[in-house]
Design goal:
Elements (H helix, E strand, L loop, with lengths): L12 H21 L3 H12 L5 H11 L6 H27 L4 H6 L18 H14 L4 E2 L5 E3 H4 L32 E3 L5 H9 L4 E10 L11 E11 L4 H16 L5 E8 L2 E10 L8 E2 L2 E2 L8 E10 L1 H7 L7 E8 H9 L12 H4 L4
Parallel strand pairs: 1-4
Antiparallel strand pairs: 2-3, 4-5, 5-11, 6-7, 7-10, 8-9, 10-11
Helix pairs in contact: 1-2, 1-4, 2-4, 3-4, 6-11
Bound molecules: phenylalanine.
The site of phenylalanine (PHE) has 11 residues, from strand 10 and strand 11.
Amino acid sequence: MAYTVSKLTDYSAAALERAVAKLLAALESEAGAVSNEADWKVFRDRWLARKNGVLTLVNDLWLKAAPKDAKRDVGQRVNQLKSQVEETVEATRQRMLGGTSASKLTSERIDITLPGIRRPLGAEHPVIKTMNEIVSVFRNLGYSVEEGPEIETDYYNFEALNFPPNHPARDTQDTIFIAGQESKPLRDRLLLRTHTSPVQIRTMEKQRPPVRVVCPGKVHRNDAPDATHSPIFHQVEGLAVDTNITFCDLKGTLDHAMKALFGSSVKTRFYPSFFPFTEPSADVQISCIFCGGKGTRDGGPCRNCKASGWIELLGCGMVDPNVYGFVDYDSRKISGFAFGMGVERIAILKYGVDDIQLFFNGDVRFLEQFG
Ligand code: PHE
């Protein structure tokens, strides 16, 4: 039964105290039952409302109705009650705000059965990862690292590398030429570099021999994209110039590098080739890492090396003496070798990727496998 204020018939101190105790007990128990803001408002109004609130009723039924000689004591007690009730109502409100209420716990509880929030770590791109790996193989041999601009002049990309104007070797390295440069001499016209070899020239212009550098970077060619071609790809160039550098040094260096990249059982083979800026020139082949150089795999021809047992990987050669003429090196006193390798090609082999486009599509399901 909810508490109601009843008239006092007995105004003695003891009777008054009994009535007060009953009221305070009701106040405490009702305050304890308040569990949310809506409850609290009902509770507040029940006790404090001007019209029919418990305190108003106490005032009417106890104080106003009191005989003259009891008015003073009853008045004091009622005033005390008034502040007790106000304090309890306020304390109850604080409890609501304080966050310990059952309703607050319900509305803000954490569902520990939900999966956590995943914050994926970024991963190094497989092309950059491979490029860094190649560079570190040569850094360990004492090479330093140089970079050059992606937008090159005709001079650095072609002319100083012994591609004369209109030479047919230029056709193998078609690229994007910046428009509207017809008024400039050919050598100053800008294009997107087709290889990292221009950095060979820039390095030799800056530095006297001995030179040992690797030059990683992005290059561009007029190639239609397919599983093995991309109009943008990456190369790592190498250049070593010193006294008495021979083709043996070139072979030993690249044989070591291929073993460092693909495993010590890999063999290398140097196959005659042509580049305008090296003489002699070679393509380096490695024994097929899929069939172990046998040319057959799972009882059939190996598809990765077209059953040859060899995979062509990079170009190299002894620096052509004509190139030294462009950078004022004395070709009678020094010699050197250069090489250039495609980073994507190496990454494809190392990671068994079957389509170069995967490197550029930005699909995280592919990329995160390299994290
Ligand atoms: N620049 C050549 C290419 O991109 C590769 C190469 C570099 C060949 C250095 C020989 C020496 O095809």
